[in-house]
C-alpha cells in the first residue's frame, strides 16, 4: 500500500495548536466535571454554542474496574473488553456478571479493538516508544513498533479501516499513523492534538481537544465537523458519537445529546445494540439503552 502524504490542510491546524506535555492534558478533569454549570450561553465556547436536544435513553452502571476503565470494545456475545490504562485487560461477561482479568502481561496498554478472534491493542512505554499488537489464543503477536522507519510514541486509540488497514492516533506526536496487517507503517497526517479515532463506513473521524474532523478513507480531504472536544468517538445508531465533560455524550456535527448524570468524566465508547461508556473520573463502565 502506498503511504498517504500528510494533508496540506493539517499544516494550518498544526501551526495554531500547542504540543501536549502530559498524557492527561487533553482530558477533561474531574474538577471541571464538578464545576458550576449554571452559566450564560457563551458562543465562544463550542459546547455552549450548540443547543442540544436530549435523546431518550436509559443508563445504568454495568461494572466497575479497579484502576479505572480507559478504552472499551464489545463483541457479538455481549462481552465488554476494557483496558485499564498502562496496566491490564479485563472482560465483562453477561453470563458471569463481573469483570475478569484477561491478561496483565500486555505492557502499558491504551487503546483496544476487536477483529476476528483477536484483541488488537496499543501500548506506550513512558510516551517514548509505541507498539501495535494483537492478542489471539492467549499469545501476543507484535505487528509494529516505534523502532521502524515511522516513529510513533503514544498511540492512545486505534480503528480498523474498511480495507483492513489500521489507523492509530498518536497523542504525543499529534499524528495519525497507518499500519497494515503485515506491519507496514506510514504517516497519514499531522493534524495537531488528536487522541481518538473511529470509522463510520468509509469515513475516518478523528479528534481531540481542538475538535473533530472527518475524511473519506484513504486519501480524502480533512474537514472539521465539530468544534467540541472529544475524549472518545464511536459509530452507533447510524451516527458518530463523541464524549466530553461539557456535552457528555453527543452527536458529532448534530444536536442530539445523552446526559448520564452520575458519570464524572465521559471517556471511550463501544457497542452496537447497547452503548457502553467508560467513566474516566470514577471506575465505572455504563450501559446506555435507546
Q: Whole-number average pLDDT?
A: 88
- Number of beta-strand segments: 25
Strand content: over 45%
CATH superfamily: TolB, C-terminal domain
Q: SS-based structural class?
A: mainly beta
In the CATH scheme, the class would be: Mainly Beta
Spatial separation of the terminal alpha carbons:
40 Å
Report on this model:
With 290 residues, the chain is mostly beta strands. The chain has a single domain, classed as Neuraminidase, CATH 2.120.10.30. It has three helices and 25 strands. It has a five-stranded mixed beta sheet, with no helix packed on it. The longest helix has 8 residues. The chain is globular. The N terminus is likely disordered.
Question: What order do the helices and strands come in, and which of them pair?
Answer:
Elements: H1 8-15, H2 30-33, H3 46-49, E1 53-54, E2 58-64, E3 72-74, E4 80-84, E5 88-92, E6 99-103, E7 109-115, E8 118-125, E9 129-136, E10 139-145, E11 155-160, E12 166-170, E13 175-179, E14 185-189, E15 196-200, E16 203-208, E17 211-216, E18 223-226, E19 232-236, E20 239-244, E21 248-251, E22 256-258, E23 266-270, E24 275-279, E25 284-289
Parallel strand pairs: 1-22
Antiparallel strand pairs: 2-25, 3-4, 4-5, 5-6, 7-8, 8-9, 9-10, 11-12, 12-13, 13-14, 15-16, 16-17, 17-18, 19-20, 20-21, 21-22, 23-24, 24-25
Based on the model shown, name its key terms.
single chain; 290 residues; mainly beta; Neuraminidase; five-stranded mixed sheet; four-stranded antiparallel sheet; 3 helices; disordered N terminus
Amino acid at each position: 500500500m502506498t503511504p498517504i502524504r500528510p494533508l496540506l490542510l493539517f499544516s494550518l491546524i498544526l501551526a495554531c495548536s500547542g504540543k501536549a506535555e502530559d498524557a492527561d492534558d487533553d482530558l477533561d478533569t474531574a474538577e471541571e466535571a464538578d464545576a458550576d454549570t449554571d452559566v450564560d450561553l457563551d458562543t465562544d465556547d463550542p459546547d455552549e454554542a450548540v443547543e442540544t436536544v436530549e435523546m431518550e435513553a436509559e443508563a445504568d452502571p454495568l461494572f466497575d474496574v479497579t484502576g479505572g476503565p480507559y478504552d472499551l470494545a464489545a463483541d457479538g456475545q455481549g462481552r465488554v473488553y476494557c483496558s485499564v490504562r498502562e496496566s491490564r485487560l479485563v472482560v465483562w461477561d453477561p453470563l458471569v456478571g463481573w469483570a475478569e482479568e484477561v491478561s496483565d502481561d500486555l505492557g502499558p496498554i491504551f487503546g483496544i479493538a476487536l477483529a476476528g478472534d483477536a484483541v488488537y491493542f496499543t501500548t506506550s512505554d513512558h510516551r517514548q516508544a509505541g507498539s501495535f499488537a494483537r492478542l489471539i489464543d492467549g499469545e501476543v503477536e507484535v505487528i509494529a513498533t516505534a523502532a521502524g522507519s515511522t516513529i510513533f510514541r503514544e498511540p492512545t486509540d486505534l480503528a480498523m479501516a474498511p480495507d483492513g488497514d489500521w489507523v492509530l492516533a498518536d497523542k504525543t506526536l499529534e499524528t495519525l499513523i497507518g499500519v497494515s496487517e503485515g506491519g507496514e507503517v506510514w504517516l497519514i497526517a499531522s493534524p495537531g492534538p488528536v487522541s481518538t479515532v473511529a470509522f463510520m463506513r468509509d469515513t475516518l473521524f478523528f479528534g481531540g481537544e481542538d475538535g473533530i474532523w472527518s475524511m473519506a478513507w484513504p486519501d480524502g480531504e480533512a474537514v472539521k465537523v465539530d468544534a467540541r472536544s472529544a475524549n472518545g468517538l464511536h459509530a452507533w445508531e447510524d451516527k458518530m458519537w463523541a464524549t466530553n465533560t461539557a456535552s457528555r455524550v453527543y452527536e458529532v456535527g448534530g444536536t442530539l445529546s445523552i446526559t448520564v448524570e452520575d458519570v464524572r468524566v465521559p471517556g471511550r465508547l463501544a457497542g452496537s445494540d447497547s452503548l457502553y461508556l467508560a467513566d474516566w473520573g470514577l471506575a465505572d463502565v455504563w450501559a446506555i439503552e435507546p
